[in-house]
């Protein structure tokens, strides 16, 4: 029997769950998992349902749309997402993604890795994936991004993953992939925004460092947070030691966030995420 | 508008959510929060719904029972649970509960504290609650427990909380409060079961210690786990230092477990818990 | 045999450990524990030594001073520190300190609790400690603080503990207790500085909240960090839920920081702490 | 200036630190970092000193030996350790080590990977390292191990790393690499020893799973613990989900343990480790 994932986002009103589950019940579909949440602030309703059974997806989607005219409805099979990874020169997050991809844990198909630096080519080649170096020197931000976008679009990705990509994307590019770009940030948000976060953390004498995976929106480092984690440090850690500890957190947090996103478990509500895990 | 908590446990079948939400919708009741889970192993369905609106609870419960004849259904208002706390001589968990109780965070009404030792009386008296010392010396386990039960039952508690109560309860007593006795265990389950767990942990050179809050069933330290947490330790910790670190974990884990239980968020499925938090 | 704690802070140079341990060895004193650290940035040396044996402390201190003329040297017996606690109206941190004090875990003698609000009096009275309400209404900051200081100084505390004291201390008061005032901050530093941190955390959709215990210096919420910890949260947590989760972190972090400080394990190096635990 | 790492393990007596630091001071060597610990149980003294300066290591070692005749003394330069990795079929730990090795973070030189299964060959080949499949079918444990040892010894490793190697080593092999074999265990020790640990964890309904890196000694899964870590799970995790979460913990814990071991920060004291980090 086929399995489906139904995602619904709607202004809240009475009877939403009833109307959805009625359609599924009458279609003889079996709910395997179900999550709902109403965001108190925005009075918005979110629902994710996994169900199994025989159905014609277009018909079902039409029925649901008729019953919930104000809702945004997505109906999909579980499947590997097409992804392009952007990176600059640090190998730890990219390498971890390539490994997970190689042994089938990523729930994605990495179609290519694109970089503004040549450093990571040999790592990507080990995994027999296309690598594109799109140089930025001598180019304006817009010209570089146009070149980058040309390469990226050739792979028709659903998602972009920024695995330590150290350049800022323009709103134009971000707008093409709304809530479909996931970044790993080298610190807790909103702390230590900017360059040299570990030097800032060292100077401040923090006892914990962390990492944040988030969707990219038009504000740098300010999109909805998907996952965060931390690791303890102490006075014996230099800024370099903190950076190394941070790398281990970064790669785990990025992988966790991507798993959640690629399984359709993440909704965006304003600047927050609703995560059904 | 009144708020209600509906808890349903049922053998799984198609249409359960639909049938429940239909009744709520037709009763013009507004679902505020909703969680469901199907235990893959036992094919059992669990659902917790918070809803608001005007309703006659007995009528509603009858309607639900008619629609889900095989289900176990509980319908209740959010309310403070009547509790008796059992403790022996360590003050850290009991003290923490008394404080939370005093400032209204416990979601329970502690009716009395009962102990097999006199040590904690002054602590309990600080909070103007009844304290009963039920001596066990010279008594058989059965005789002591009969005396204990006499005191406990006088307070008609819904739940018993074992806040470092160091005696084993008989199956007879446990059977009177099925999944209504919460214990805090001085270690991870299933590790280091038995006496002197911190000495065992020290001897083993562990780098992490933890605590487990669980329901008591007829197997000692073996009931369904509600909450667990850990704290790192190292070679500089003596067994005593580990015990002190452990106390801080124990009191936080016990409080978290009680919050979950008293809010009706915990279901028992075989030897596991389903927790909707 | 008596036990002593020796704390040395000195500009770094060769032979410091040798000179110190030579004096202890010739005095037939037995080193039980020893920690050293050289701060790379400031080229400063820190050492904490626990030793046991018969000695005349004044003589020993003079010998050490002669051998390390540039060093700051403290020689002391392990002892309970005299403390005044300042609080405003939240009971969770204060209550936790009172409990630990009552059962002998705090390594301090709480001489009094002083507040700018009357709310916490009954809690303090339960533990038979002096409570002083120093009203601030109608007074300038300076006038209120002068009244407060009058009360505090009457107890000759070595340390002040700010257990959710919600007023800002003036540099004048802070200067009287250099690195002897410990505060618990309702968030990670440097994130969410200011009012309503949990509302800020909620609005930002964070997945982790934390707490920071730090020395107070003349910059608000900016003194050297002693301890930090975190707790995971998710989209189901309201700002109020986050605040409650935060309270559990705050009280544990504050207690941990005080244990470190009162055992003489914390040195301040610029804006960072060196902690020998 | 050259840097050295001095490791001393000795029955405890007065003056040990003094005697060591005297020799270093007189040799005009500058102590960069220093840690000592006395194991209360065994009355044994451990010391690790990093120092910089010009010295003749053999002479210095002889001086130290003369001053501390009962001590075990190791003097070494910081260097990459020669390692052979043993693995069976799971790629997550091995892949993580290969990545860290490739980008220079492992403090080791992986000379070869040896396996009792052919599955991981392609992964190892990506990193251009030797891979040896030593089949066990049809062989006695002793015969297989003899074949394995033949391959391993050809690479003269200082350390063996068991990166999910699923066969039990004989005491004979373990005895050749005393406290030089590091294993990653798929659970907390001492919990869930044996096969299918995640199935056991699922059946027990645990809320936390973890991993333990330890030295291998003659008791299976019972050697001194080097590092442990945990990750929270809940009722929605199947045994397979728990295994996946466990893999992320395993690879991070193994890498952390190896960093500590390869930097000479780990001492073994009975069945416990002393770790100077």
Structure, explained:
4 copies of one chain form a homotetramer. In chain A, 32% of the residues lie in helices and 30% in strands. Chain A is α/β, with parallel strands linked by helices and 277 residues long. Among the domains of chain A are: 74 residues, ACT domain (Alpha-Beta Plaits), CATH 3.30.70.260; 89 residues, Formyl transferase, N-terminal domain (Rossmann fold, 3-Layer(aba) Sandwich). A 7-stranded mixed sheet of chain A has the order 7-6-5-8-9-10-11, with helices on both faces. In chain A, strands 2-3-1-4 form a 4-stranded antiparallel sheet, covered by helices on one side. In chain A, helix 1 packs antiparallel against helix 2 and helix 7 packs across helix 8. The two termini of chain A are 23 Å apart. Chains in contact: A-B, A-C, A-D, B-C, B-D, C-D. Chains A and C meet through strand 11 and strand 13 of A and strand 11 and strand 13 of C.
Multimerization status: homotetramer
Given the C-alpha coordinates, what overall shape of chain A results? Answer: globular
CATH superfamily placement of the domain at 85-173 in chain A: Formyl transferase, N-terminal domain
Count of DSSP H/I helices of chain A: 8
Strand content range of chain A = 25-35%
Count interface residues per chain for the largest interface.
Answer: A-C, 32 and 32 residues
Estimate the helix proportion of chain A, in percent: 25-40%
């Amino acid at each position: 029997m086929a399995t489906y994932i139904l995602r619904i986002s709607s202004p809240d009103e009475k009877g939403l769950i009833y109307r959805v589950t009625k359609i599924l019940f009458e279609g003889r579909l079996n709910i395997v998992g179900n999550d709902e949440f109403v965001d108190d602030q925005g009075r918005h309703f979110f629902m994710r349902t996994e169900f199994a059974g025989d159905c014609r997806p277009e018909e079902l989607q039409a029925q649901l749309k008729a019953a919930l005219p104000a809702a945004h409805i997505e109906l999909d099979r579980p499947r590997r997402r097409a992804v392009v990874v952007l990176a600059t020169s640090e190998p730890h997050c990219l390498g971890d993604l390539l490994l997970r991809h190689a042994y089938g844990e990523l729930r994605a198909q990495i179609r290519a890795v694109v970089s503004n630096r040549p450093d990571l080519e040999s790592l990507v080649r080990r995994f027999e994936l296309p690598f594109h170096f799109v140089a930025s020197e001598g180019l304006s931000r817009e010209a570089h991004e146009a070149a980058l976008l040309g390469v990226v679009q050739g792979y028709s990705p659903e998602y972009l993953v920024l695995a330590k990509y150290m350049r800022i994307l323009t709103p134009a590019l971000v707008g093409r992939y709304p809530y479909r770009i996931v970044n790993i940030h080298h610190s807790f948000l909103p702390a230590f925004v900017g360059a040299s976060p570990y030097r800032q953390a060292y100077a401040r004498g923090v006892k914990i460092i962390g990492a944040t995976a988030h969707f990219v929106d038009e504000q740098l480092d300010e999109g909805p947070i998907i996952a965060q984690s931390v690791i303890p440090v102490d006075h014996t850690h230099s800024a370099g030691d903190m950076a190394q500890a941070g790398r281990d957190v970064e790669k785990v947090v990025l992988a966790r966030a991507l798993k959640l996103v690629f399984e359709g478990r993440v909704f965006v509500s304003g600047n927050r995420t609703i995560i059904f895990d």
